[in-house]
Automatic annotation (TrEMBL):
<dbReference type="InterPro" id="IPR051782">
    <property type="entry name" value="ABC_Transporter_VariousFunc"/>
</dbReference>
<dbReference type="GO" id="GO:0005524">
    <property type="term" value="F:ATP binding"/>
</dbReference>
<dbReference type="InterPro" id="IPR003593">
    <property type="entry name" value="AAA+_ATPase"/>
</dbReference>
<protein>
    <submittedName>
        <fullName>ABC transporter ATP-binding protein</fullName>
    </submittedName>
</protein>
<dbReference type="InterPro" id="IPR017871">
    <property type="entry name" value="ABC_transporter-like_CS"/>
</dbReference>
<keyword id="KW-0067">ATP-binding</keyword>
<keyword id="KW-0547">Nucleotide-binding</keyword>
<dbReference type="InterPro" id="IPR003439">
    <property type="entry name" value="ABC_transporter-like_ATP-bd"/>
</dbReference>
<keyword id="KW-0813">Transport</keyword>
<feature type="domain" description="ABC transporter">
    <location>
        <begin position="5"/>
        <end position="230"/>
    </location>
</feature>
<dbReference type="Pfam" id="PF00005">
    <property type="entry name" value="ABC_tran"/>
</dbReference>
<dbReference type="InterPro" id="IPR027417">
    <property type="entry name" value="P-loop_NTPase"/>
</dbReference>
């Protein structure tokens, strides 16, 4: 298996403040990898260490098989990077800025820049200082994608973008993957990466909380169930069933409602409910956003 990014026991401290704590992570070549965590969790610190913009307190970093410190210049030519705080000279026009950056990378066809600008609806003639945050972000996206690098490292790439442009961005990521490029994308929004990522890592307070495919994370999510009964039921009848947590029974007399979470197959719950007259049934999977927040809060996301 080819590895695009390999982090081993990576640690970074800022005085008494911890940035990363023994992070070990491998990103495969050619995959789209989502790196999730709230602001301050260590996402940007990880990226800056990968690019040798800051130095680790401990551990090792390998990007595209190279040491970012020893081979920074060669390595940066093979990478497209969008910083979370992307900033350039506001006096330049967007097109002038992108042409200058293209020249630093050995040249990019003007048609490529124009094509990306049209897709993202960016006015290349506008001065950067006059652009909104969303339009400045488009400049950042274009400079990262335009030279079709082996590795794209994108820190909060959709910050400030409207929903339609976000969809265009996701299409661009899908095209990069189809071309064999690796995409490492940090975000604090689970829904932003779940549609496009092959795998997702969740970082919590500088430590890796989970890493898996989106499908596997979905499989770990709980089933939320609501059952309406025609008659009165008791908590005791259902509380001992396997996988049941958060059980609540409300209502008396004309009907009762049971709500709970189910970890695993709901077979036992359904069979127990079938001993009564069921007037309503609703079941839905836990939202991935909720699962993400459960990991961040340090809870067991499956409730077991």
């Amino acid at each position: 298996m080819n590895v695009a990014i390999e982090l081993t026991e990576l640690t970074k401290t800022y005085g008494i403040r911890r940035g990363l704590d023994g992070l070990t992570l491998r990103v495969r070549a050619g995959e789209v990898f989502g790196y999730l965590g709230p602001n301050g969790a260590g996402k940007s610190t990880t990226i800056r260490l990968m690019l040798d913009l800051i130095r680790p307190t401990g551990g090792t970093v390998r990007v595209l098989g190279k040491d970012p410190r020893a081979e920074a210049v060669r390595l940066h030519r093979r990478i497209g990077y969008l910083a979370g705080d992307f900033a350039v000279d506001g006096r330049q026009r967007a097109g002038e800025c992108l042409s200058f950056l293209a020249g630093l990378r050995g040249g990019v066809p003007a048609a490529r820049i124009t094509e990306l600008a049209e897709r993202l609806e960016l006015d290349l003639a506008a001065r950067i200082k006059s652009l909104s945050k969303g339009n400045r972000q488009k400049v950042g996206l274009i400079q990262a994608f335009m030279h079709q690098p082996e590795l794209l490292i994108l820190d909060e790439p959709t910050s400030g973008l409207d929903p339609l442009v976000q969809q265009t961005f996701l299409q661009m990521v899908a095209e990069a993957k189809a071309a064999g490029q690796t995409v490492f994308m940090s975000s604090h929004i689970m829904s932003e990466v779940e549609a496009i990522a092959d795998r997702v890592a969740i970082i919590r307070e500088g430590r890796l909380a989970a890493v898996d495919t989106v499908a596997a994370l979905r499989d770990r999510s709980l089933l939320r169930v609501r059952i309406d009964f025609a008659e009165t039921i008791t908590v005791e009848e259902f509380a001992a069933l396997p996988g049941i947590t958060g059980l609540v029974v409300t209502g008396t007399g004309d009907g009762t409602t049971l709500t709970c979470r189910v970890d695993g197959a709901p077979d036992a719950l359904i069979k127990a409910a079938a001993r009564h007259t069921v007037t309503g049934l609703r079941a839905e999977s836990q939202d991935l956003e909720e699962l993400f927040h459960a990991y961040y809060a340090g809870e067991n996301p499956t409730g077991s």
